[in-house]
Amino acid sequence: MDQINKITSSDLNFFYNNNIEISYQGFVLSLICAAILSFLVQLFYLKYSSSLSNKQEFSKNFVVLGITTTIVIMIVKSSLALSLGLVGALSIVRFRAAIKEPEELVYLFLIISIGLGCGANQLAITVIGIIFSLIIIIIYSIYLKKKKTIFEEKISAGIIINQNITDDDIQNVIKEIKKISLELRFISMSRTSDNTTINLDLKTKNFKDLTKFTGLIKKKYLNSKVILTYNDELSL
C-alpha cells in the first residue's frame, strides 16, 4: 500500500513539475501565423458581415485576441499545473463583452480557434480550417445576396387619395401595384366622397420600382399621399 502511494505521489510530482520546453522559433512562428489569420478574419468580417453595429470598432481587437489566445495556450500546455491554474482563473474572471448579434459571436469563436490551433502548434490544420471557414462565408454571402435580389423588400403600403375617384381608378391603381409586386395582399380600404385610403402588403424585387410607382400616383392624383413601411415580419 505504501509502495502504491509512493508511485502515485511520484507520478503526481512528475505531472505537476514537469515542464515542456517551448521552441522560440516555433513560438514566434505560431504568433506570426495567429496574427496573419486573425487579420484575414478581420478583413472578411469588415467586408462580408451584415452586422448593424460599428464593425470597425468591434473588429479592431481581433488580431490582439488571436495573439493573446496563442500565448496563453503556449504557456499552459507546457505545464499541467499552469493548466489547472488557468481553469481556476477562468472560474473567477468572466469575459463580459457586449455581443449584440450572433454573427459577432461566430467571428469571436473563429479568432479563439485560431489562437487555440496556433498555440497547440497545429498550424497546418488551423490554416486549412480557417481558409475553409472563410470560403464558406464567401459562398453564403453570395447566396444571401442573390436571394435578396429576388425577394428584397417586404413593404406595407398606405395609399391616400384626397379626391373623389371611380372604381376604375382604384382598379388601375391595383394593376400598377401588381406590375411591381411579386406577391400582393389586400389589407383594407375606406372610401368617402372626397377620400380613398387603400392599405396593402406587398413583396417587391427592388426599391426603384416603388419610387416609380409613388411618382406615378403623385402625378396622376395631385392630392394624394403614399406611405411605404418596411416590414420584415410579413408572411408573404
What is the alpha-carbon Rg in Å? 31 Å
Low-confidence stretches: none
Q: Strand pairing plus helix content: what structural class?
A: alpha+beta
Name the helicity range.
Answer: 55-70%
User: Helix count?
Assistant: 9
Tally of distinct domains:
2
Describe the largest sheet.
4 strands, antiparallel
Question: Which strand order do you get reading across the main beta sheet?
Answer: 2-3-1-4
Beta-sheet strand percentage? 15-25%
For the residues shown, what is the average pLDDT? 78
Overall geometry comes to: rod-shaped
Structure characterization notes:
The protein is of the alpha+beta class and 236 residues long. The protein folds into two domains: 2-148, no CATH class; 153-230, Alpha-Beta Plaits (2-Layer Sandwich), CATH 3.30.70.360. It has helices at 2-17, 24-48, 55-59, 62-76, 80-92, 102-119, 123-150, 167-180, 207-220, and strands at residues 153-161, 181-191, 196-204, 224-230. A hairpin with a 4-residue loop joins β2 and β3. α2 (24-48) runs antiparallel to α4, α2 packs parallel to α7 (123-150) and α4 (62-76) crosses α6. The N and C termini lie far apart (76 Å).
Quick tags:
rod-shaped; 63% helix; 236 residues; four-stranded antiparallel beta sheet; single chain
